[in-house]
Give the backbone structure.
Amino acid sequence: MTSFKLTDKERSLVLPITLSSQFEWFEFFLFIYWSRIFEREAYFSGLSAPLSEFIYAILLLCSGLFSRPIGGMIFGLIGDKWGRKTAFIYSILFITVPSIILTISPSFPTWAYSSLVYLGIMRLLQGIPVGGELPGALCLLFEGSTQTRRRYLCSYLFVGTQLGQISSLILITFFTTYLTHEQLLGWGWRLSFGISSIIGITGVILRKKCSKKIHETEEFESLKTEQKIETHPLRASFKNYKKRMILFLFLSILEVSGFYLIYYYLFDNPQLLKLNKTQSEITYLVYLILFTMLIPVMGYLTKKETTEKLFKSSAFGVIITSTLLFFSIEQGWDKYWNLSIITMIMLFFCIQFSIFPSFLAESFPAKVRFTCIAFSFNIADGFIGGIIPLLSDWLIEKTNKNGIFIAILPISALIFLYCLKKIIKEKKIQHQT
């Protein structure tokens, strides 16, 4: 099978996973946006800058450092012990509950900065099922595809994430365009979570209906038949694969850094790119749409290339282009240069996003795959993703260089190359024995 077109069986696997994941990530990105708005409002309401920054840090760390890894371990247990399908179906149910609660929450003028703490608690609760979403989707895609199609089908993993971000960005842009600042803080933010609650409930219904089409994977069924289900997957993962999980944790930093710096931080600070707010939002939306479409295309076109070669070329590409972006921002080059360089950086990250999922999944055995993926990816995505905006602001403040935060990318790429070398060497030794 060499066609880009999905077969009926592949389509019945990919579409339910992609579309239902979109609803989950739609809600997640709303949380990111509103926590930032509330943090700014707290600052302008008279709270000291250190206090507002501290509260915002707590919001990020609650969702990232604590809840995502915890959720990964909880759903890893469910996925490796009771099935990938079971974990996948219930993750969206639990992520919708915080949105329903926030719909009936007091407004910012009523609770002032307490709303930030309240939002942080809800984000913590929401982050737990988010920690099981990507690992569950990846296990289903990887184990539900044939050997020759795994890279291509697994490249659809981040499509649902991107679609959720696109949907939330459209809603947020609509709200900020047609509602006043007072309306946003008074009831607009609750209305957005009300809409996300409806979408989340729709996602629950869709996922349950689609569950009839999504069958438990053959690999997991074989483990059940042979009575090889791991009763303590977390313990077994750390006992047998601790080194590899840690290596993948650091390997994931490049993908995470690229996502939060390029897709999020840069366009949240449009002055760095010499764009106004409207230009930034439109450009951001266009980039999201184009590269969401491009990721599976890359997954298909690179099927004959070795993983090591693709990873190395894309990592070196990120090092070169991110260095150019640093000089572009520091030297004040115009917006067209900035956007041209960002386009090249995103192309290299498209390669990363298209091949990383299958490489991660194939590196762990089926009986602990869910848990190992959940631990490695969620620690990196939760912790690194949580601190990157804060670290970027801190670097700019301390060095007085607007482009200094870009240094995170080449450093992450060098860490990536080192960990990649170690992982490939370890896998070769394991294969020989």
